[in-house]
Design goal:
heterotrimer, A mainly alpha, B mainly alpha, C mainly alpha, A: mainly alpha, Helix Hairpins, 72% helix, B: mainly alpha, 6 helices, 77% helix, elongated, disordered C terminus
Chain lengths: 117, 145, 172
């Protein structure tokens, strides 16, 4: 198996799992959002890795007869990035409201307040 | 940030170029990298920069909230409307081939219009979101003012 | 990128975490250029490194700058992550190699986009052609999602200043 072979996928999996770990193990809501966007970016990298053709060029028609990379993943990810930031903004907005209602953005403190009341 | 002279001057110099670059990305997206999504974001960045440097209230005065909200809706409307127009001209929904005398030109025109709709919505939504966050609490202005 | 992510996990200063996530996005954008996704790289650099960092800073400025030390046990998440990761790595063993032109993904609809998009749409940039024309419904859906998210943020965050102003006008 010549390099890079499957190496790219393993890096993607590492990044993805790191994002997942941040989401699960950290109680701070903003840090959870950061973890979520790490996870998201790793999926983007995964898609674009799959779309690459060895020796290919960017999918814009140029004279000659070059090999193009697959444009389909690019299209899917292009829209996904912008939708991702829109949903991120939505999540942050909810966090800001939570901070106003509870005075904290730590998950366990919010839990405690809920139990006390 | 109003007392940072260098930042104010540089921002004033940069903003027209950011806007110009946004327009270039928007309308040159058919031929090079670019398109509605990127152009919308770049366009929004110009307003965000202005709001950061000159304060939110000045930025609000330049581009009032109701225009932003109209832009959000108008972009989606242009996109969906293109589909409806294509339907009236005898094609399928979002089939741009019927928009001009021959299919490739129709497709080109359709893509152009639709990308404009996308750009408008994305730019307006990004500016609206930023204004919403910055308008909350006004701590940004205090810290930088 | 791996280093950036490890730092994000370790650090408790949220300001540094947000900055690092911006750097992470920028690194991702450079990677996208390497794998020929120029459009995507463009978007990631503008959105990931620009707008989302600014938004997170905005959120930080109205909430708090520091994360409190995690009181939760980190053992269970770690175990879950390791097991999931191992399963995914096992899954990749069946994947085609990086850059393999014979991979199944390049065999289905992509050849048609590559060969016919210039003829059918007279737009040289295939990504734009596919985005707006072949997958027009898809893009319409995405724009609607952005539209909805924008409306949602406005509803959640903008104070009902309109009504108050109207009351003031009534009083005046």
């Amino acid at each position: 198996m010549e390099w890079p072979g499957l190496f790219n996928y393993w890096i993607v999996i590492f990044l993805m799992m790191a994002g997942l770990y941040v989401v699960m193990a950290r109680a701070n809501l903003i840090k959870k959002m950061v973890g979520l966007s790490i996870f998201q970016a790793s999926v983007f990298i995964f898609y674009l890795t799959m779309g690459k053709v060895a020796g290919g060029t960017a999918p814009i028609v140029i004279p000659g007869n070059p090999v193009y990379s697959n444009p389909l993943p690019h299209v899917l990810i292009l829209t996904a990035i912008v939708v991702g930031v829109a949903t991120l903004a939505m999540g942050l907005a909810i966090i800001v409201r939570i901070n106003e209602a509870y005075g904290t953005i730590e998950e366990d403190e919010i839990d405690q307040q809920e139990h006390d009341s | 940030m109003s007392h940072h002279l260098v930042i104010r001057v540089i921002a004033k110099l940069l903003i027209p170029f950011i806007l110009l670059f946004g327009l270039y990305v928007q309308f040159h997206g058919d031929f090079g990298p670019g398109g509605g999504f990127q152009a919308g974001v770049i366009f929004a960045v110009a307003f965000v920069l202005y709001a950061l440097v000159y304060g939110l209230d000045n930025a609000r005065r330049i581009i009032p909230d109701r225009y932003i909200r109209a832009g959000i809706a108008l972009g989606v409307l242009i996109f969906a409307g293109t589909g409806v127009v294509a339907m009236f001209l005898g094609g399928n929904y979002l089939d741009y081939s019927v928009l001009a005398h021959d299919p490739p030109h129709g497709q080109h025109l359709g893509i152009f219009v639709v990308e404009f709709g996308v750009g408008l919505t994305v730019a307006s939504v990004m500016v609206a979101i930023f204004f919403a966050f910055a308008g909350r609490g006004h701590k940004i202005d205090e810290k930088e003012g | 990128m791996v280093l950036t992510v490890l730092l994000i996990i370790r650090l408790h200063n949220l300001f540094a975490v947000v900055m690092l996530s911006g750097i992470y996005s920028l690194l991702a954008a450079t990677f996208f250029v390497v794998v020929d996704g120029v459009d995507v790289a463009f978007t990631e650099a503008a959105v990931g490194a620009g707008i989302s960092t600014v938004l997170m800073l905005g959120a930080l400025s109205v909430t708090t700058q520091r994360e409190k030390a995690a009181a939760k046990s980190t053992l269970v998440p770690l175990a879950v992550v390791v097991v999931t990761g191992a399963a995914l790595v096992y899954g990749t063993l069946d994947m085609p190699n990086y850059g393999d032109p014979e991979a199944p993904i390049h065999k289905h609809v992509a050849p048609r986009y590559i060969e016919d998009s210039l003829k059918e749409t007279s737009v040289p940039n295939m990504v734009t052609a596919v985005l707006a024309s072949y997958r027009g419904y898809d893009t319409l859906g995405e724009v609607t999602v952005i539209f909805t998210a924008g409306i949602g943020v406005i509803l959640l965050l903008v104070r009902v200043g309109g009504r108050r102003r109207r009351e003031d006008e009534d009083a005046a």
